[in-house]
Fold this protein.
Amino acid sequence: MPVFESAAFEQTLDSEVIDEVYAKVEQERKSALTGYYDLPYERDLLHTLKEYAHNSKSFKKVKTIAVIGIGGSTLGTKAVEGFLRHTQKQNRELVFFENSDPVDIWSKLEPLKKKNTLVIVVSKSGSTIETISIFKAVATHLELDFDKDSDRVIAVTDRRSVLEDFALEYGIRTFLIDKNVGGRFSVLSAVGIVPLYLAGYDVEALLDGAQRQMDLFFAKESHHLLQKAHFYVQNAHRYHTNVVFAYSSQLEQFVKWYIQIWGESLGKIDAAGEGVGPTPVGLTGSVDQHSFLQLLVEGPKDKTVTFIAVEDFGQPLQVPQLRLQHLEKTDYINGESFQTLINAQCEATKRSLDELRLPTDKITLDRIDAEQMGALMTYYELLTSIMGILMKINTYNQPGVETGKKILRQMF
Amino acid sequence: MPVFESAAFEQTLDSEVIDEVYAKVEQERKSALTGYYDLPYERDLLHTLKEYAHNSKSFKKVKTIAVIGIGGSTLGTKAVEGFLRHTQKQNRELVFFENSDPVDIWSKLEPLKKKNTLVIVVSKSGSTIETISIFKAVATHLELDFDKDSDRVIAVTDRRSVLEDFALEYGIRTFLIDKNVGGRFSVLSAVGIVPLYLAGYDVEALLDGAQRQMDLFFAKESHHLLQKAHFYVQNAHRYHTNVVFAYSSQLEQFVKWYIQIWGESLGKIDAAGEGVGPTPVGLTGSVDQHSFLQLLVEGPKDKTVTFIAVEDFGQPLQVPQLRLQHLEKTDYINGESFQTLINAQCEATKRSLDELRLPTDKITLDRIDAEQMGALMTYYELLTSIMGILMKINTYNQPGVETGKKILRQMF
C-alpha cells in the first residue's frame, strides 16, 4: 500500500471533529447521497465482463477500443491506463475521443478499421454534446449499421438515461452506472472498469487496492486524511492553491484526474453565498523542476505541495559509467539507476521547499501496478469528500457548468 | 496575424507609463540584458541548416530525431511541434527525452536504431543532470563511438559551455545560443529552430510571424499588451491566478510552454523582499469545460482567463446528419462542422464568465500554421517582459531552483 508522510499536517484533532466527519461520511454512504464508497466491493461486473469477452465473437478480433467520452467519463480511465501502459504488453489499444477539436478527432478516426474496432460510448446523461456528436462521426466513418453491427458498440450510461433507451432499441450491450455515482467519482464503476478490463488491465487488483484503502479509512486508521483536509480547510485563505507534484511521467494523466476531482468538487458557492474552493495544480517531476519550481520557491507562499514518488519503477536502466571529456561535472551520478536519480530529485526538491516552511507532504507508491493506483485514487476521493464536509458544501454536483451549455444551445 | 480582443483591460494608460515601459524594453534590448528580442531577425541559421541537411550524408537516412533536453530546452519546440504535427506529413519524427523517469526513457530508447537516428542534445550549460545522463544512456544504447559517429550527434548549447568543449573535442556539429537568451525565451534560437527545421517544419514562417508581432510592438501598435500587463499587475492581489484556456488539443503543449515562461519569469522575490508572481494555469477546451470550469464559475473570483481559439482548423469534419432514436436532444448540432462546435463552445464559455464579471480576453489564431504560432509566442514573451518591468523584478533569472540542485548533489 502507498506510504503517506504528512508531518506538516500532524495536529491533535478534537475527537469531536473526527467523530463528526466520520458520522457525515457514514451518513453520505448510507443515505446514498453518493455511491462511490461501495464501488470497490462490487465485483459482479467482472464476471459479466469475463462472460462477454468469452462469448462475443466480434470481440476476439478487436485490436482497438475507441472510448468516446469527456471529463469524468474518461479522465479516470486515462489515469489508470497512463500509469500502467508500459508495465505489460496490452491486448488491445485504447484510443480516447474526448475533444470537439476536428483535427484531434480526425487524426484518431482516420486509422480506425471496422473489422477490429470496438466502440465504447460513455455518457451518464446520453446528451453530452461532444460525446454524442463524436459517436455519430465514428459510427458514420466505420459505416456502422446499428441493426447489424450492434456487437461492435458498448454503451456505458446511467440507469434509465436516453443512451440506455437508444442501446435497448438496437440491442447494444449496455453497462449501467448508478445515478448517485458522479462522473469524477466513477472510475471504479463501469465507466473505468469496462474499457480497462477489455483492454487487458488488471482491474481486480485495481479494486483490491481501492478496497484496502477504503477499509483502512472506515476502520478509522487513516487519520492523516482528516488531518490533511482539516489543515487545508483551516488555512484556505493562506494556502489557496494545492499542488500535486508527481515524480513520474506515468502519473501525468493521474494529475489531470486530480485536477478535475479537486476543482469540480470543491469549487462551489458555500452556505454563506461565497465562492470557495482551492485551485488544483498538477506537476510532473523532474520536468517541472525546470518550469514551475521557481514560482514555488520564490513566489508567494500561498501553495501547499504534495509529492508523489514511485519507490520501484520496475525498470533497472542506469546512467552508464561513461566519462565524457569536459562533461565530468555530472559524473557523480554515473552507475546509479535513473530510478535512484528521480527519487533523489523528488526528495531534494521536497527538502528545499521544507526549508522555506511551505506545507508539503509525500505519498510513496510501492511500485507501478493497478493495486497502488486503486489505493491512490481512493485516497484522493476520500480526501475530496472530507474537504467538502469540512467546507460545508455539496461536493457532488456541478451547477456552474450549465450557463455555458445554455448559451451554446441558444447560439444554434 | 492573431486577433486580440481584450475589452476587459481597456483603460487609458498614462502616456508616462507607456513611455516608461517602452524605454525599459528598449533598454533591455540595447543593453543586451536579454537577447530574445532580436531572434526573429536572425536568419543566418537557416542557411547553415540548409547546407547541413544538403551536405550531411548520414542525415539523409535519418527518420527519427531524438531531442534530449529539459524545461526551456524542449518546451518551446514541443509547443510548435504540437501545434503543427497534424498539418502535414513530417519528414522526420521528433522524440523528446526530457524526464529522468526510467520507464519513460526506456519506452522511447528501446525502438531507436542507430542507422536512422540523429541525436540532438540541448543544454545551455552542458551540466543539466537529466540531459547529460540521458545523453549517456542514448549514446550507450546506440553504441555511438564519438570518434567515428560524430555526424550522428548535434549539440545545441551556450557559447563557451562545457558541452561546446566536448563537441569540439570530437568534431560534433554545434549550434550556439547566446548566453543572454534564457531557456524559456529560446524557442526561436538554435534551441527550437534546429530540431524543428530538421524535422521539416516551416521555421521561416515561424520567424516571420514572430518578426511581425515584434515589429508591431516596437512600432507602438500593441497597446493592448501594455493594458493587459498593467491590469494584471495593478490587480495582482485580487487576481493571483492567470488561466489560459486554449480551445484546441493542438495547443496542449503551448499551454505548458506558457506555464513555464509565466511561472519561472514572474515568480520572484521583489525589491521589497516579498515573494511575488501570479500562478499560471493552462487548460484545454472543450475538455476542461468538464473539469476546471466549475471552479472558475462558482469558486473564488481570483482568476483571469485568456481564451485562445483557432478560426480555421483546416479540417472540414462535420457532425453527421444522423438522427438516433432517443438521442435527439443533441441533434441541433447535426450538419455543423466540429470547428463550428468548438468555436461556439469557446465563445459560450467566455460569455458565461463575462456574465460573472471575471476579467477575460480572447486571442483568435487565423489558422493552424507556423506564422500564427510565431506571433503567439512572441506576444507571450513580450507580455512576460512587460509584466516583469511593471513588477520591478528580474524576469530573466531563476535563482530559486539552485537549492534543490545543491541538496541533490549532497545526497550522492
Notes: Chain A has 14 helices and twelve strands. Chain A has two domains: 3-29+210-398, 33-201. Residues 370-391 of chain A form the longest helix (22 residues).
